[in-house]
Amino acid sequence: MDNINDISIFKMKKNPLKKIIKDGKAIINGWLQIPNSFSAEVMAKQGWDSLTIDMQHGVVDYPNALQMLQAISTTDTTPMARVNWNEPGQIMKILDAGSYGVICPMISNKEQAEKFVQACMYPPKGYRSYGPIRGILYGGADYGDHANDEILKIAMIETKEALEKLDEIMTTPGVDGIYIGPADLSLALGKKPSFDKPDSDPVFPTIMKILEHAKKNNIFAGIHNMTPEYAQKMIEKGFQLVTVGSEQRFMTSGAKNAIEKLKGKSTGVESKTY
User: Fold this and answer.
1) 155: which residues sit within 8 A by CB, 6+ positions away?
2) Which listed site, 41, 84, 128, 156, has its alpha carbon 20 to 30 Å from 58?
3) Structural domain tally of the chain?
4) Residues 176, 153: Cα–Cα separation, whole Å
5) 66-119 pLDDT, tens per residue?
6) CA distance readout (Å), 98 to 11, 58, 122, 164, 209
7) Residues whose CB falls within 8 Å of the CB of residue 67, separated by 6 or more in sequence, listed in order
8) Is there a contact between 243 and 30 (Cβ–Cβ < 8 Å)?
9) Higher pLDDT, 4 or 162
10) At residue 176, does pLDDT exceed 50?
11) Which of 57, 146, 213, 224 is flagged as catalytic?
């Protein structure tokens, strides 16, 4: 038998998303809003680099998220979650459940960024309480020794205050990347919420400004997209994490297309389905 005292045999499962970033490539991320382990498993089988469970605007609570994390773990897809607020208890609990990354909404300043990242990290770097009940099953026996380095901490930039404090947020120790929510960012700028902004949109220059600040501060930038074509455009601009729709959107668009084709041919009536 190999030497059981050899710590190398207990290395925590590496976060493959960190290597993608280090290699200068882009993470292709899917979005989960339906509280169901089967739909999460189906999505995880499609080849995404990561899947993010949306606990902010999705209809997902903790018991659902736990089962979804278990389903994702049957594949090589890396599980992440967007929490509903910068609330340490929820952040710690979803990490204990096995999420390998946390996206936190509405980070507006350095203090909020510190509160977020420190909730993700064990002492002395943070104040995360130790109890990775499932994280240790997914990550490995020495999870506690390496989790601070492997877990991705991603702050959302989507408020007016954040736009005035980009550098202080992005230079907060522990922040690995930022994520743009175009809808809330639009609202912060007094515009209607929407995604996939054309270059002519008044919000587009602000998106590019956030990206440039991320590059300057040596962290990656992510953005929410509605189409693969726009996601590809954002990759070419320099974004290293792109979300391409959610499972409910894929289901809606697929069903809508089928109904429109069938009803269009048989009745000539255009479907009003969203």
Assistant:
1) 104, 107, 113, 116, 117, 169, 172, 175, 177, 178, 179
2) 128
3) 1
4) 5
5) 999 999 999 999 999 999 999 999 999 999 999 999 999 999 999 999 999 999
6) 16, 19, 15, 34, 33
7) 37, 40
8) yes
9) 162
10) yes
11) 57
Does the reported pTM lie above 0.90? yes
Check pLDDT > 60 for residue 270: no
Tell me if residue 270 falls in helix, strand or coil.
coil
Neighbours of 212 (CB within 10 A): 14
Residue 256 placed within a domain: no
Predicted local distance difference test score (pLDDT) of residue 11: 84
The candidate with the shortest Cα–Cα distance to 167, out of 213, 211, 212, is 213
Q: Would you say residue 255 lies in a domain?
A: no
Residue whose structure tokens are 């297309």: 257
Q: Which DSSP category does 218 fall into?
A: T
pLDDT tens-place string over residues 113-155: 999 999 999 999 999 999 999 999 999 999 999 999 999 999 9
Q: Using CA atoms, how far apart are residues 132 and 12, in angstroms rounded to an integer?
A: 13
Note whether residue 226 is domain-resident.
Answer: yes
The residue-averaged pLDDT of 228-246 equals: 97
pLDDT of 173 over the 80 cut: yes
Whole-angstrom Cα distance, residue 269 to residue 259? 10
Query: What does the alpha-carbon distance between residue 134 and residue 125 come to, in Å, rounded to a whole number?
Result: 22
Cβ distance 157 to 212 under 8 Å?
Answer: no
The distance of Cα 183 from the centroid of its chain, to the nearest Å, equals 16
Measure the CA–CA gap between 99 and 125, rounded to whole angstroms.
19
Q: DSSP states of 76-106 as a string?
A: SPEEEEE-SSS-HHHHHHHHHTT-SEEEES-
Say if 260 falls within a structural domain. no
What was the pLDDT predicted at 264?
A: 79
Active site residue 146: no
Domain that holds residue 205: 7-246
